[in-house]
Amino acid sequence: QVQLVESGGGLVQAGGSLRLSCAASGGTFSTYALGWFRQAPGEERKNVARTSRSGATAIYADSVKGRFTISRDNAKNTVYLQMDSLKPEDTAHYYCAAKYSNSADSTIRNPYEYDYWGQGTQVTVPS
After folding, report:
1. Per-residue 3-state assignment (H helix, E strand, C coil) for 67-122
2. What are the distances in angstroms from CA 114 to CA 31, 37, 121?
3. pLDDT digits (tens, 9 = 90+) for 9-44
């Protein structure tokens, strides 16, 4: 059983930066495709960034492209989300997710395809 624990959320002023971390335990981290999702109150959970098992592929939602960077460190069993130039509309609960993948370079967009989820971490950017 894989457990994911996010950290790094908080309150930051518009234009600021945060780095979210998601540490995994159990399973074989290097075999998982990974994603970061966010969910604001009253809204559905949306993918903001995802990466392949190899880390060679990273895909971003249009709303965060150029501002967010997803990366993974397989040696540390951790995936990161660097968030720069934060905006009030980035306010949400952020979750990381993992799914075993037999493809080194494919990513997974659909949240329903992920097998493992963390408890999330809150990011608040006041307007």
Report:
1. CEEEEEECCCCEEEEEECCCCHHHCEEEEEEEEECCCCCCCCCCHHHCCEECCCEE
2. 13, 11, 18
3. 999 999 999 999 999 998 899 999 999 999 999 999
